[in-house]
Amino acid sequence: MLKPRLLALSGSARRDSLNRKVLAVMARGAEAAGAEVRVVSLGDYPLPLYDGDLEDSQGLPDNAARLQQLFASHDGLLLASPEYNGFFTPLLKNALDWVSRPLPDGSGRPGTVHVRGKPAGITAASPGGLGGIRSLQHTRQYLANLGFLVVPEQMGVSQADKAFTDAGELGDEGVRKAVEGVGAAVARLAMAVRGD
Ligand SMILES: Cc1cc2nc3c(=O)[nH]c(=O)nc-3n(C[C@H](O)[C@H](O)[C@H](O)COP(=O)(O)O)c2cc1C
User: Fold this and answer.
1) Pocket test for ligand 1, best of 42, 81, 85 (most atoms within 8 A of CB)
2) Cβ atoms 130, 156 nearer than 8 A
3) Which atom of ligand 1 is nearest to the CA of 129?
4) Which atom of ligand 1 lies nearest, measured to the CA of 86?
5) CATH code at 184?
6) Number of domains observed in the structure of the chain
7) Residue from 48, 49, 45 nearest 67 by CA
8) What is d(CA 172, CA 160) in angstroms, rounded to the nearest whole number?
9) Bridge partners (DSSP) listed for residue 8
10) Domain range holding 51?
11) Which CB contacts under 8 angstroms, 24+ apart, belong to 167-172?
12) pLDDT digits (tens, 9 = 90+) for 114-171
Protein backbone atom coordinates (compact mmCIF):
# COMPACT_ATOMS: atom_id res chain seq x y z
CA MET A 1 0.00 0.00 0.00
CA LEU A 2 1.35 3.42 -0.91
CA LYS A 3 2.22 5.66 2.01
CA PRO A 4 0.28 8.94 2.22
CA ARG A 5 2.50 11.83 1.22
CA LEU A 6 2.43 14.85 3.51
CA LEU A 7 3.82 18.29 2.82
CA ALA A 8 5.42 19.97 5.85
CA LEU A 9 5.62 23.76 5.99
CA SER A 10 6.77 26.25 8.59
CA GLY A 11 5.34 29.75 8.86
CA SER A 12 8.88 30.93 9.53
CA ALA A 13 11.77 30.77 7.09
CA ARG A 14 14.17 32.05 9.75
CA ARG A 15 17.48 30.16 9.86
CA ASP A 16 17.18 29.18 13.54
CA SER A 17 13.38 28.93 13.51
CA LEU A 18 11.91 27.20 16.56
CA ASN A 19 8.86 26.29 14.51
CA ARG A 20 10.99 24.50 11.96
CA LYS A 21 12.33 22.36 14.81
CA VAL A 22 8.80 21.59 15.99
CA LEU A 23 7.86 20.73 12.42
CA ALA A 24 10.64 18.13 12.31
CA VAL A 25 9.22 16.44 15.44
CA MET A 26 5.74 16.53 13.95
CA ALA A 27 7.11 14.99 10.75
CA ARG A 28 8.70 12.16 12.72
CA GLY A 29 5.33 11.45 14.34
CA ALA A 30 3.67 11.29 10.94
CA GLU A 31 6.40 9.03 9.56
CA ALA A 32 6.09 6.67 12.55
CA ALA A 33 2.37 6.46 11.77
CA GLY A 34 3.11 5.40 8.19
CA ALA A 35 3.34 8.61 6.16
CA GLU A 36 6.06 9.93 3.89
CA VAL A 37 6.90 13.56 4.66
CA ARG A 38 8.52 16.22 2.50
CA VAL A 39 9.68 19.29 4.42
CA VAL A 40 9.71 22.46 2.32
CA SER A 41 10.82 25.97 3.31
CA LEU A 42 8.67 28.86 2.11
CA GLY A 43 11.95 30.77 1.94
CA ASP A 44 12.71 28.75 -1.19
CA TYR A 45 9.49 30.04 -2.83
CA PRO A 46 9.70 33.83 -2.49
CA LEU A 47 6.52 35.62 -3.57
CA PRO A 48 5.48 39.26 -3.81
CA LEU A 49 2.78 40.45 -1.46
CA TYR A 50 -0.49 39.45 -3.13
CA ASP A 51 -1.43 42.15 -5.64
CA GLY A 52 -4.44 41.79 -7.93
CA ASP A 53 -3.06 44.23 -10.48
CA LEU A 54 0.18 42.26 -10.71
CA GLU A 55 -1.81 39.04 -11.09
CA ASP A 56 -3.90 40.61 -13.88
CA SER A 57 -0.86 41.90 -15.76
CA GLN A 58 1.65 39.05 -15.22
CA GLY A 59 -0.42 36.04 -14.20
CA LEU A 60 0.29 33.70 -11.33
CA PRO A 61 3.94 33.94 -10.16
CA ASP A 62 5.99 30.81 -10.95
CA ASN A 63 6.60 30.10 -7.27
CA ALA A 64 2.86 30.17 -6.57
CA ALA A 65 2.34 27.65 -9.37
CA ARG A 66 5.14 25.51 -7.92
CA LEU A 67 3.48 25.57 -4.52
CA GLN A 68 0.13 24.63 -6.09
CA GLN A 69 1.86 21.64 -7.68
CA LEU A 70 3.35 20.65 -4.33
CA PHE A 71 -0.13 20.61 -2.81
CA ALA A 72 -1.46 18.69 -5.80
CA SER A 73 1.15 15.98 -5.32
CA HIS A 74 0.61 15.55 -1.57
CA ASP A 75 -2.21 14.07 0.47
CA GLY A 76 -2.07 16.43 3.44
CA LEU A 77 -0.28 19.20 5.30
CA LEU A 78 1.80 19.47 8.46
CA LEU A 79 2.14 23.06 9.62
CA ALA A 80 4.10 24.80 12.37
CA SER A 81 3.83 28.55 12.51
CA PRO A 82 5.01 31.29 14.85
CA GLU A 83 2.41 33.54 16.42
CA TYR A 84 2.78 37.19 15.52
CA ASN A 85 0.53 39.32 17.74
CA GLY A 86 -1.96 36.53 18.16
CA PHE A 87 -2.04 35.48 14.51
CA PHE A 88 -0.09 33.20 12.21
CA THR A 89 2.55 34.81 10.03
CA PRO A 90 2.17 36.99 6.93
CA LEU A 91 4.68 34.70 5.16
CA LEU A 92 2.27 31.79 5.51
CA LYS A 93 -0.88 33.79 4.74
CA ASN A 94 0.61 35.34 1.63
CA ALA A 95 1.92 32.03 0.29
CA LEU A 96 -1.41 30.24 0.82
CA ASP A 97 -3.42 33.17 -0.54
CA TRP A 98 -1.38 32.89 -3.75
CA VAL A 99 -1.90 29.10 -3.75
CA SER A 100 -5.68 29.66 -3.58
CA ARG A 101 -5.68 31.71 -6.80
CA PRO A 102 -6.78 30.22 -10.15
CA LEU A 103 -4.47 27.60 -11.64
CA PRO A 104 -2.25 28.85 -14.49
CA ASP A 105 -3.71 26.22 -16.87
CA GLY A 106 -6.53 28.54 -17.99
CA SER A 107 -9.19 26.19 -16.63
CA GLY A 108 -10.40 28.84 -14.22
CA ARG A 109 -10.24 26.31 -11.39
CA PRO A 110 -9.05 27.77 -8.07
CA GLY A 111 -5.83 26.48 -6.50
CA THR A 112 -7.92 25.24 -3.61
CA VAL A 113 -8.88 22.21 -5.74
CA HIS A 114 -5.49 20.84 -4.68
CA VAL A 115 -6.14 21.20 -0.94
CA ARG A 116 -9.87 20.59 -0.59
CA GLY A 117 -10.69 17.57 1.57
CA LYS A 118 -7.04 16.96 2.52
CA PRO A 119 -6.07 16.62 6.19
CA ALA A 120 -3.93 19.21 7.96
CA GLY A 121 -2.36 19.42 11.41
CA ILE A 122 -1.31 22.60 13.17
CA THR A 123 1.29 23.47 15.79
CA ALA A 124 2.97 26.63 17.01
CA ALA A 125 6.10 27.37 19.00
CA SER A 126 7.15 30.42 20.95
CA PRO A 127 9.75 31.41 23.53
CA GLY A 128 6.77 32.76 25.50
CA GLY A 129 4.55 31.00 28.00
CA LEU A 130 1.53 30.37 25.77
CA GLY A 131 3.41 28.66 22.95
CA GLY A 132 1.50 30.54 20.26
CA ILE A 133 -1.84 28.87 21.09
CA ARG A 134 -3.79 32.10 20.49
CA SER A 135 -2.86 31.88 16.83
CA LEU A 136 -3.98 28.28 16.39
CA GLN A 137 -7.69 29.07 16.30
CA HIS A 138 -7.04 31.49 13.43
CA THR A 139 -4.80 29.00 11.64
CA ARG A 140 -7.48 26.34 12.01
CA GLN A 141 -10.19 28.64 10.65
CA TYR A 142 -8.07 29.84 7.74
CA LEU A 143 -7.06 26.33 6.66
CA ALA A 144 -10.69 25.18 6.94
CA ASN A 145 -11.73 28.09 4.70
CA LEU A 146 -9.24 26.85 2.11
CA GLY A 147 -10.88 23.42 2.31
CA PHE A 148 -8.48 21.46 4.51
CA LEU A 149 -9.79 19.00 7.08
CA VAL A 150 -7.92 20.19 10.18
CA VAL A 151 -7.48 17.42 12.75
CA PRO A 152 -8.65 18.24 16.29
CA GLU A 153 -5.22 17.52 17.79
CA GLN A 154 -2.98 20.61 18.02
CA MET A 155 -0.08 21.81 20.15
CA GLY A 156 1.60 25.06 21.14
CA VAL A 157 5.13 24.57 22.44
CA SER A 158 5.91 27.18 25.11
CA GLN A 159 9.43 28.26 26.17
CA ALA A 160 10.46 26.69 22.88
CA ASP A 161 13.88 28.35 23.01
CA LYS A 162 14.69 26.03 25.94
CA ALA A 163 12.63 23.03 24.87
CA PHE A 164 15.03 21.25 22.51
CA THR A 165 18.02 19.02 23.16
CA ASP A 166 21.18 19.52 21.09
CA ALA A 167 19.97 16.63 18.91
CA GLY A 168 16.83 18.63 18.02
CA GLU A 169 14.51 16.53 20.15
CA LEU A 170 11.88 17.96 22.50
CA GLY A 171 13.18 17.32 26.01
CA ASP A 172 9.78 16.96 27.69
CA GLU A 173 8.23 13.62 26.79
CA GLY A 174 4.65 14.85 27.14
CA VAL A 175 5.28 17.78 24.81
CA ARG A 176 7.12 15.56 22.33
CA LYS A 177 4.30 13.03 22.28
CA ALA A 178 1.71 15.77 21.79
CA VAL A 179 3.60 17.21 18.80
CA GLU A 180 4.22 13.75 17.31
CA GLY A 181 0.54 13.01 17.94
CA VAL A 182 -0.55 15.86 15.67
CA GLY A 183 1.58 14.44 12.87
CA ALA A 184 0.29 10.93 13.49
CA ALA A 185 -3.33 12.12 13.44
CA VAL A 186 -2.79 13.71 10.02
CA ALA A 187 -1.18 10.51 8.70
CA ARG A 188 -4.09 8.41 9.98
CA LEU A 189 -6.72 10.75 8.53
CA ALA A 190 -4.89 10.82 5.20
CA MET A 191 -5.10 7.03 5.08
CA ALA A 192 -8.77 7.07 6.09
CA VAL A 193 -9.66 9.72 3.48
CA ARG A 194 -7.97 7.56 0.84
CA GLY A 195 -9.92 4.54 2.11
CA ASP A 196 -6.85 2.49 3.14
C1 LIG B 1 6.09 40.73 14.83
C2 LIG B 1 6.21 39.69 15.91
C3 LIG B 1 5.14 39.45 16.74
C4 LIG B 1 5.22 38.46 17.72
N5 LIG B 1 4.11 38.19 18.48
C6 LIG B 1 4.14 37.13 19.32
C7 LIG B 1 2.94 36.69 19.97
O8 LIG B 1 1.85 37.23 19.77
N9 LIG B 1 3.02 35.62 20.79
C10 LIG B 1 4.19 34.94 21.00
O11 LIG B 1 4.19 33.98 21.75
N12 LIG B 1 5.35 35.34 20.40
C13 LIG B 1 5.35 36.40 19.57
N14 LIG B 1 6.49 36.77 18.89
C15 LIG B 1 7.76 36.08 19.19
C16 LIG B 1 7.90 34.82 18.35
O17 LIG B 1 7.18 33.76 18.98
C18 LIG B 1 9.38 34.43 18.24
O19 LIG B 1 10.07 35.44 17.52
C20 LIG B 1 9.58 33.08 17.59
O21 LIG B 1 10.90 32.65 17.81
C22 LIG B 1 9.28 33.14 16.09
O23 LIG B 1 9.24 31.83 15.57
P24 LIG B 1 10.48 31.17 14.79
O25 LIG B 1 11.56 30.93 15.86
O26 LIG B 1 9.95 29.90 14.28
O27 LIG B 1 10.96 32.12 13.74
C28 LIG B 1 6.43 37.76 17.92
C29 LIG B 1 7.52 38.02 17.07
C30 LIG B 1 7.41 38.96 16.08
C31 LIG B 1 8.59 39.19 15.15
Assistant:
1) 85
2) yes
3) 11
4) 8
5) 3.40.50.360
6) 1
7) 45
8) 11
9) 39, 78
10) 5-194
11) 168/21, 168/24, 168/25, 169/25, 170/22, 170/25
12) 999 999 999 999 999 999 999 999 999 999 999 999 999 999 999 999 999 999 999 9
